[in-house]
Amino acid sequence: MCMNGQCKKMLNGHLVVQNNQDVSLNFGSSEVNGKNAKEADPGSNGFKITIKKSPILIAYDLSYISTLYHDFQEDIKLFSFTQVEGDPTRFCNHELRSCQKVRDEYLYGTPNLPPGQKNWTQETPIPPGSQGSCCWCPELYVTINTDAPFSRATLHCSWIQQRMWWNVYLSKSCPVWIPPWWTAFRIGGWNWQYSLEVELSWFSPTESSINKLSSTELENMENECKEENKDSTIDCSRIRHKESGIQTSVHTLNSSSPSFYDPNFGASVQVISSGPPFGSANAKDLNGYYMLQPTFSPKGMPPSFAIPPLRSGCGKASKNQTEEEINDCLKPTLIIPPENADFTGVSCDKIGTSVHTWSSVNGRFCYHPPGTCQRAQIAHFYKKVIEDHSLGKISQYSVRAQNSGSPQLILNSVGEIGHEELDQNDMGNITNIQSRRFFLGYNFDSIFDTEIMFSVEASSVSWVATSSPGIITFIEPPPLEACTAMSSFGCPLKVYVKNSGDIDSGFVVQIPYCTKSGVQTSEVDPVMAQTKKIKANSIGIFTFVLGVSVLTGSEYKCVVVLYNSFSVQLDQNMFTFSTTSTTISIASSDSIISDVVANQTSLTNKKFDSMFTGNKCISCGLNFWCLIANIKDCIMLGVKCIGIILGLVIGFVILLKLIKIIFELRKNKKIEARTINNSQESLSQGINRKN
To answer: For the chain, percent helix, then strand, then coil, each to nearest 5?
Structure first.
């Protein structure tokens, strides 16, 4: 790429990423300073770009409209008519005092029926003026008690009439309904979200670079690594010095930030296209539609009208929810087209208007015969959804019929699309509903690909051809007898590290983990990492003590990792040891690399006493079955103990004999001394007498 006479060598890429897809691209050079790149750098040259894409989420904004009733019935024929025993004349009278008397006797009344008719029917409309005037208050309003099941709304008289001598509950008819348990939302504008995590990794050595290996050594290392990791995704060409000077830069692309430029690496990544094509079956434009969401189920509700309540975390996977429960969560939700709903209070044959019209100044209910407004009830549409579901069909009014993605009900109190769990009490509180934001979301896992383009300046890539200042040159096997018996002092191990740099440097050697049969094990006691300063062009020795906590002979493979003082990994190695009497094998420092588990260490200052001694019987303690299983060792141990005890007894007896002999000798010497003295005295006395 050239601009204003200046040219740059660029590394460009163009790719399409699907939802929930990870893409990783490695860029490198075949030669570094005239040498094979693998000989100059074991896998860390060049750079790597990784792109991880999350599913696309389409979210429709929801605006709270009203709390609606699932169903209600006109009580003209179902209640009031039966209360007056089919005789309207007993109720209606032009005198309010008579109305009061009838009210006390029959509670409620019914309007005048056509002559000869005892009940209202859909075929017989209410004639004009048939509501009557004897007991009809001039002004009406509604008092709704939704706390009790099947609450009955009552038409009250005006404020003045309530405080006069007539009864405040006089009415011609009282519609009855199931308490409100649906929340109506208007579906507004939509937005869609996606997330791309872009990670750039390149080699930028700090204090040192990685060890220079010959092509033969590198081939052996990679071949053995690949052989050991046939079924894994380990990049054996990079694993040796994965942490040695690798720098990482992570960026996130989304609908609000579709591009970025990394000045440190001279890399730019941008999203060319990503988004749902509205108007198709995959993503329908629902602007202007209404969403009816059930909020709670009142006590005493007939089973035929039962609707699952809104669960917390609706549409969101939870440990306590099965997949079937998550799918059922939004099953009762209704999506109603604009032509089937009206909240202006004008229309009677649409959802959301019947109650408003009934409580208007008209004083009449829908201007329709009883029962005709049932077609405008939520129950009317919901019954269709249930019927379609029982037939194995997706109803046109269901949530799943609108888009091909997985539906979610999303609640967020700060105005951002989120996944906050929705509490059932929140939905029952109108004030709380109005103060929060709701979204109807659709999650798309397998469609809507994203087209991405990236560009990287080739000059920004560091091609490495230097040697590491530190390398593990040798691991010294401990003496065979030291690990065969596995005494309480453990098994000594020495690691030789060479500082090939020009200055004195500090190094850290760690044994992060061991494996048994290819799986990490805790049977090998934790080993503390050691730090040592090594002079330039010299070799330092790190000594460790290994201990295991099992009784039977086992074979273990352990990893040794070398770091510099900046915690940059310089080298790693693997060695094998066994608690049996077989020879301990130590992997050569330049031929074997194990599967490194990143960021996993088990370091502790605690010292563990080994359970292994020269005899397994001692390790059994008071375990009866262990003693039985090792009866031979226990017998041998018993024989040894008896021999030791007999030896001690015999030695003690001999000691007593020696002490007795010594005392007798000393006693005899004293007697001889006395005899000599007496003889001398007698001789002296005889001489004196002669004189």
So the answer is: 25, 30, 45
472: phi then psi, degrees, rounded to nearest 5: -80, 115
**Whether the Cβ atoms of residue 359 and residue 142 lie closer than 8 Å to each other:** yes
CA distances from 324 to 311, 318, 420, 445 (A): 13, 12, 21, 18
Strand-pair partners of 440: 60, 409
Q: Which amino acid is at 681?
A: E
Answer for the pair 253, 198: CB distance below 8 angstroms, yes or no: yes
Place of tokens 């990503």: 274
Closest CA to 99 of 143, 57, 134: 134
Coil/strand/helix, residue 591: coil
Q: Which residues contact 413 (CB under 8 A, 6 or more apart)?
A: 420, 435, 436, 437
With CA atoms as reference, report the closest residue to 410 among 56, 55, 57, 53.
Answer: 57
Mean pLDDT per 10-residue interval, the chain, length 691 residues:
71 76 68 50 58 80 79 43 41 38 32 44 36 31 33 37 36 43 83 80 54 50 75 57 62 82 80 63 81 65 48 44 52 86 71 51 41 63 82 85 79 41 41 61 74 74 49 74 55 83 81 82 82 88 79 75 71 74 39 28 29 53 60 79 86 87 80 67 63 57
Please give the model's pTM, rounded to 2 decimal places.
0.43
Q: Which residue has the tokens 């770009």?
A: 49
> What is the helix (H) or strand (E) element at residue 656, kind and residue range?
helix 631-690
State whether residue 493 is helix, strand or coil: strand
**CA neighbor of 452 nearest in space, from 264, 202, 254, 247:** 254
CB 149 within 8 A of CB 302: no
Contact 130, 365 (CB under 8 A): no
CB of 557 closer than 8 Å to CB of 573: no
Domains of the chain: 9-57+192-277+450-460 (no CATH), 59-69+282-441 (no CATH), 75-174 (no CATH), 470-614 (2.60.40.10), 615-660 (no CATH)
The answer to whether residues 45 and 32 touch, using CB atoms and an 8 Å cutoff, is yes
